[in-house]
Each structure stands twice: as C-alpha cells, then as structure tokens.
Design a protein that fits this description.
about 400 residues, alpha/beta, Aspartate Aminotransferase, domain 2, 2 domains, 8-stranded mixed beta sheet, 5-stranded mixed beta sheet, 13 helices, globular
Length: about 400
C-alpha cells in the first residue's frame, strides 16, 4: 500500500529515501480498492495511510512538490496542471468578490488577460502598479488589498524588482506577496527568503527543462498552501502523474542546466552588446548581467547568476526583426522558455500579442524585440548563429 501523507501536497523533507530504486515508481491508477467500508472511509478522511483519489493528490505529485519545497526553502508546495492554473488559483484563493488585488504592470500576457477579462467579472478589483516607479505601489495600497503580485525578473525585458522593499511595504498594508519567479529558478533565486509569501513557477519551463511536461507549482507556508490545495481539489486543476514524474526526474539536473544556460547567456549578452557598440543592427540588449541594465545592482543582490533569458532590440522594427529571426539555425523559432535548447520568439506576435501598441510602448516592448531563452548548447555555436543572422 502506498502511504498517503497527512497533507495532500508535498512537504519539505519528504523526498529523502535511504534506499530502494533510484527512479521512483509511477502510479497511474485513478481509484484504489480497500477490504472494508471502514478502511475506505478512514483513508478518505486522512485517518489511515493509503491512496484515495488522484484529484486529492498522488505519489508522483507529492514527490515533485516535496523536491520543489526543498529547493525553495518552503514548508511545502502545491502543483497544478499548468503555470496559468497555478496563478489563477493564487488569485482566486486569496481574494474574494468585493476585495482587491494589486498586480504589477510587468507580467506575462496570460496574467494580463486574467487581470483584464476574468478577475473583474468575479467581482475582484484589480489595481495596477509599476514596481519600478517610486510611490506607485503606495498608491495601489491606498485602500485595502488582499494580494500583491509581481514578476521578477520580468517577461520579456528581465527587469529585477527590489523584492525586499516591496515585501516590507505590502506587509505593512496587511497583504500577501506572490512572486512569479519562472525566469530564474531556485537555487539561483529564492523569493521566500526575501519576504515573499508565495512563489509561483510555470514548471513547464526550466524546472522541467526538456520541453516535454506541462505543469505549475506554488511554494510557501502550510497555512497558505492548505487553502490553495482546497481550491485545487474543488476545481480539479491537479498535475497529472506522468507529468509530475517527468518534472521530478528533471529537478536532479536543474542547477546544472540553469547555471550552464546562465553562463551561455552572460557571454552572449556581452558579445551582443559589443555588436551594439560597433553600430550593428542590435540597438539594445536587455540582460540584467550587463552593467548598464537598469536593475543590474538589484540582480546582483537577489540573483545567484543572472539567468538564461534575454531580449535584443533590432533596428528597423518588426520587419527587420522577422528577417533576423528567420535566419536562425541553432536557435529554434518557438514559444516557451527554459529548455535545454535555445528558443527565440517575437513578443509582438506571441507572449504580448494581446496588448495594444500603446500598452507595449508603456511596457518598453519595442516592435523589433526578439526574446531569447538560452539553452545549454556549445557557446561557440550560439554566438555564430546570432552573428550570422544579424550580419547577413
């Protein structure tokens, strides 16, 4: 019989095993039989060990959650079927009709859609603020707020928020802080250690790292996670066993992959910035490891490595960006990020396509912007690919 933990999500410290197979078993069963009515009742009530129903939790999911909790330094973690399901759960769990949430202006396009289309129709007021504009958060907190949500580093320009300053101000207002940290995973970034209450990841990205599993995960304190797990159970947005198994497998190489990709990205950023200085088609390089990046000092404070995400702005707007983009031979033209392969996308046509031209202008997203998720390929191959695409 597989033991079911007291909670339906993974807790810190549960993943360590002194022996047995080095690869965990995978249970796909959707129901479990018991010898008596009393035994089934006791398992369902959490009074006895055993599995009940996978929408309430399952072994592969709890293994993945416990591994993430260890990485984040959290009490535990709750996994979801996707990163968007995780983010939606955070908003709907901690804010009710008639209450307000404050959401940074620099968020992924999917979160933007939730803020505009969904939360208002559920009666949740959405206040927007610029975390890089002095006093703007104070304005958003002028009335009662239940939750403040930020993304750091941001998509697609890799802006790095002064998390401790935000957390301190939000705590004074009696609200919670949730952080989407998908761009930089643990151990390169740990928002909980800087005052965040919840940290969210699209596990599809660098946590999985092999472009073969969809998922999301939220880490934090038990009293918050228990509420999130209840929402997950009611809505059915649980991570499936197969995806959970793949994600747990990938975490063993997370730091190796993330650091190699970050090393590649830093070298490429320096190379591309050199092209910019020599008057090439590159007019701007957005990477927090560069000294002239507006948040370089914040990145040095909050990140252990500058991450694998960057963006370059090409002179000539979207038409020229497309010409450069279509000449890539190593970088794959694809959405998503954080895999072992370098991926390139055009935010104007993908992650931020739903924004108006004015909204993109305010967010600093130029028409000629190309976003790059740097992989772990041989560095020389990546440099040559970008040079040839830009100089052709």
């Amino acid at each position: 019989m597989i033991q079911r933990s007291a909670r339906s999500y993974g807790c810190r410290g549960e993943a360590v095993s002194p022996g047995g197979p080095l690869a965990p078993d995978l249970t796909r069963a959707t129901t479990f039989a018991y010898e008596t009515a009393e035994r089934l009742r006791a398992v369902g009530a959490g009074e006895a060990t055993g599995e009940f129903y996978p929408r309430y939790g399952h072994p592969a999911g709890r293994l993945f959650e416990s591994l993430v909790a260890e990485l984040e330094g959290a009490d535990g973690a709750v996994s979801f079927s996707s990163g968007m399901a995780a983010l939606f759960a955070v908003f709907c769990t901690f804010a009710r009709a008639g209450e307000a949430v404050a959401i940074s202006r620099y968020v992924y396009g999917g979160v933007e859609a939730i803020a505009v289309k969904d939360l208002p129709r559920f009666g949740i007021e959405v206040r927007r603020f610029d975390p890089f504009k002095p006093g703007d958060l104070d304005r958003a907190l002028a009335g009662p707020v239940r939750l403040v949500h930020i993304e750091t580093p941001t998509n697609p320009l890799s802006r790095v928020v002064d998390l401790e300053a935000v957390a301190r101000r939000v705590r004074q207002a009696g609200a919670l802080v949730s952080v989407d940290a998908t761009f930089v995973p643990p151990p390169l970034q740990r928002p909980l250690s800087h005052g965040a209450d919840l940290v969210v990841h699209s596990a599809t990205k660098v946590l999985g790292g092999h472009s073969d599993a969809l998922g999301g995960v939220v880490s934090g304190r038990h009293e918050l996670l228990e509420q999130l797990e209840g929402f997950r159970r009611r809505t059915g947005a649980i991570l499936g066993p197969d995806a959970a198994w793949l994600l747990a497998r990938s975490l063993a190489t997370l730091e190796l992959r993330a650091r190699q990709a970050s090393d590649n990205a830093l070298r490429l950023a320096v190379f591309l910035d050199g092209l910019r200085e020599r008057g090439s088609k590159v007019v701007r390089v957005h990477y927090p490891g560069l000294p002239h990046h507006p948040d370089h000092e914040a990145a040095r404070r909050y990140l252990d490595g500058f991450g694998f995400m960057m963006a370059i702005e090409v002179a000539g707007g979207l038409p020229e960006a497309i010409r450069v983009y279509d000449r890539f031979r190593v970088a794959a033209r694809a959405v998503s990020l954080g895999g072992v392969h370098t991926l390139a996308s055009l935010p104007l046509q993908t992650s931020h396509a739903m924004l108006t031209q004015e909204e993109r202008r305010e967010a600093g997203i130029a028409d000629g912007l190309i976003r790059l998720s740097i992989g772990i390929e041989r560095y020389e191959d990546l440099e040559n690919d970008l040079r040839e695409a830009l100089e052709a």
